[in-house]
Protein 1
Amino acid sequence: MPLHPSPLRILGHGARPGVKEAEAALVEHYPRLVRLAYLTLPPSLGRHRRVLAAHAAVQRALHGDARPLSGTVGEGVPAPRSGDSPGDGPPTAAYAGVRLRVVRISLAYGRRPRWWPGRVPAPSALRPSVPVVRGLRLFPRAGGMDEFALDRALADVPAPVRAALGLRLLESLSDDGTRALLAEAGVGDPAASVRAAAHVAGNDHDRVRRMLRSDEFDPCTVQTRPSDLLRRRHRVRAGAAALVLLAVSGGGLALSADTGTGGSRGPFPAPRVTVPGGALDPAALLRTAPGQWADTSRVDFSAWPPRGGRTDDRKLLERALGSWAGPPADATVTTTPGTAVVPPAQPPRLLFAGELGGEAVVLFHDGGVRVVRYAEPLSGKGSPALDFARVDDADVTTAAALAVSRTAASARYLLAPWVAESTTRDLLAPDTPARALGVDGDGITASVPRPEEGGGCLSWPVMQLRSSEKIVEKHAFLVTDLGDIAPVHLTHTPKPGAGAPARQPREATGPEALTGWARTACSLEGLRHSGVRAVNNWQFAEQPLPGTRSRADWVCTRADTWSGPGRVLVQFAEPATSPTARAEVVSDRRNTALCSRFGQHVVAGVHWRSPTGSWYVLAAGSRAVKRIEVTGSVRGGADGPTLAVRAPRGTSFRVDAELRDGGTMSSAG
């Protein structure tokens, strides 16, 4: 559904000089201005509010002072079409002025005064603005996996960095022009924003530019869905009840809305409701044909056929769907962060219905974002349980298994129909061969040990699965239990080779990968119940240790969540007598694109004591690092990706690096 502005009011003779030119520039180049605003606005607004806010920001840009910034008028400004420029003012200047105001308004959405409450939207976001859409949700059309990954990476950087990226790649401004415009828009450190944007773009600017021009970032061509019909209905009823009570009592009632939060556990009181459209009718459940997974290019949960001994038990399915729509007051509801606890908008897909571990269990997939697990005790005593988990854009590995039954010590999984072989192994025993894992006719595994919580990390069990050759040849991969319904995919990026091209993450089943995970597996302990989708171990540097013949590994362990934000642990693994000696965590960063395809450079430092007792500051960077410098209480520099400087124990220091493309960056820790 293309969105275009309604015709703006034609300005009369009394209009301020230049406003008519600004109006013409805005209307002519409306789509590119809205795309720039959409890119700059906070992703936390959600796609619907972000689309509307982008259109509102551009339409509000016509008002107020929109004079162009000197020195940037001719940069990145589209040439006017002949005959389309009314008035005497230069159209390029008018466009530059409108663009400046669009950026300024969009940046204001992310700013809060110091005294403003942390959970309250910024004042600019509270202003009433048009357009307003009721009863529909708007969102841009989905792009590919690369665009999706870029959108997630951009959610981890501040608004000025997103604006700088848009100005550089969408508007083709120079670095100087971008810095000047951001400064005029009120950004405190525009130079840092431009440098950070360059790191996000990496070396392939054309590729990132194409992604930014894709449907994923186009708020003028959108799809529509109905808003939350049940919540809307409840609000109408609540409003009517409030008016009645107000009339009777003569007083006022304060109404509050309670929304589910990610990671919540415990009783979840909610009324039973009816969802229109047959979404709760067991007869309308979607059921995939058993062999469809081998004949489709979409290898995810939509290719799972229904399995289990109670797939035709209408009463069980009715109870499961009804509890999903309105969890009973005594139900225990668990959600992974970022997962909506709302009824299905359409009939979901049935994945499993059967009996396991003294419970009747049902698994649903809602067609895009969520997997829902319902369980009730077979004895009739006890409360039902509901688990909600995000699984959007799952693939052959992240849609390979779901936890059907779980105890504190073990879990049983329903495997994807394309899993041809299943084994288990211990990450802390890298030289021990994998052990066969039994699977019944429904695809349910035997009990798989779970990593013990708070048990000292004496072992770390994982499943090693192999895909059928019908979809991919010789493809084995690792998944592990971090407490959510979907197990986490573990990968490995090898250390840089001499003259070798940049490495890509690969499956962590080889000797080098298993050896690396043996040193870092225990760091997974801090990622439990956080909605993690996949974890990659990137050995980004290998460093000779001064005074020895040994070498240490630098590892960036990145956890990507289903909701988007990532968490990064930079770890230092020096030689050890035990193959499972824990690497030292030197940095822990949250909500960052570091060590992803959109944060390809990293540098870090650590204190290290040599076998002779001397203390050093060691620093290392990834393959694109040209030079490293240490400042602070100790100073030193060296060309290349590693550095060692003698320094007393506990010395404060800062690590900075120069990149081969001329950029700079600071230590991750």
Note: The mean pLDDT is 82.
Protein 2
Amino acid sequence: MPQSPDDLDAVAVRTWCSLALEALGRERAAIDAINVYPVADGDTGTNLYLTVESAAAAVEAVFAAHETGPTVPAHADAVRAMAHGALIGARGNSGTILAQLLRGMAAVLSEAGDAHHLRTALAEAAAAARLAVAHPVEGTVLTVATAAAEAAGATGRDAGLQDVAEAAYEGARAALAATPGQLAVLGRARVVDAGGQGLVTVLGALLEAVGGQARGGAVGPAPETLPLTGDCAEPGHDGGPAFEVIFLLEAPDDAVARLRDRMDALGDSLVVVGGDGLWNVHVHVDDAGAAVEAGVEAGRPYRIRITHFAADRGAAHREPAQRAVVAVVPGDGLSGLCAEAGATTVLARPGEPPASGELVDAIRRAHAREVVLLPNDAQLRHTAAAAAEQARTEGIRVALVPTRAAVQGIAALAVHEPGRSFDEDVVAMTAAAGATRYAELAVAERQSWTMAGICQAGDILGLIDGDVAVIGEDVPRTARTVLDRMLSAGGELVTLILGEDVPDTLGDELSEHVREGYLAVDTVVYRGGHQAAPLLIGVE
């Protein structure tokens, strides 16, 4: 417990994060089970847990930096770290909204952590969250946040920090109990709002951190459905968009304002949170590629996560699918392509490969009993193996197909058949990947010795199966030479993936080169978006 219950100091913030993470860990599965809005994909509890886990880790990092010092961190540093950690680690619709709530609170609590500032912080948080959601709906976490703020605001001037926290918690609990009567899909399923339940849990942890005692809120079916209030009745989202797209975005405020309008036209469940140049964008769409492209136009998107919703989204609790594919992709363009093929994707930024925790998170998001993992990078084999082993301890059957390049992953995904046995599917995908030779073009950063001779800084390198085979002066001629080397051993299909700065004309030129020189060899061209290599090549 914090030393001063009337001041939300750094230790109290740390305790709050720890207690919230512990409580969400206990309730995660139960909250997942009541997740029916906006999509019945059974992951709200998990998303909230992962969001708070990121917030708690950021706070711990602040404390770790002060381990050698004589004092604990300033409370402002702790609350800002909490908000920033939640922002960069937000998952799903509910996690993104929670990140904005914590950001709204941090803007006020960074000044002081007394009762008055907590009242103001809760009000600011509720208002900020509503502004972040394109089309606010009552009966959701937004309603619960507003009720918590109003209850806290009704406390008297003499109320202490604990009194304000308790009022917010009780106000949130009362609002949560009423959500089935405000949102039709909750009433039909006879459950309270899952995101609202998560917020009650987080506020309960806050109350406990400042010396109070939170009473457990009921998680699960509501004791009885309440009469619907017409204006708040909301139809279920059966048959809604196919993909959930989430990414962090570095962009100025004016660009984000335009992004909101474009995203709103693409799909629904749009939530854009953040500020000061860093944003977390969440949307449900049918065209995942268009959503990512909108982000690219606004600024620099990264940590892109695209999840394909299961067809049975209308169920009150989605049972895990039998099988799913998780693929690491080197560019945002391939994220959309692989997602449209049914894969859950993890974006590998240039020079920043995903950690095993990110792969485990993606395996969980796939929400399947059986998962095929495509690392698509030889250097990720150990990371992918560790992620697969962790997921297996959670009861998920994971097969690691050792794809060494994105083109091998695309080949494996093309033959994926969820209807056949898991082992047969893995064998077929492994065979398709193994039958695909891969190459990429890169720009030499300095003079060095290679298997093809000495290269100079700025030379174009053609790497075949990971080794430098060609040294050239420009991309088109080097690409043609690489293709000739690869096709000399035969082939039926050439896959070309163009980088962000490569013109479409290169794809046309190389396709024509293949048609003229190699009869019966087909060529397909994809835009890879922002990727390290200007060109990726696959030959099957």
Note: The chain has a mean pLDDT of 85.
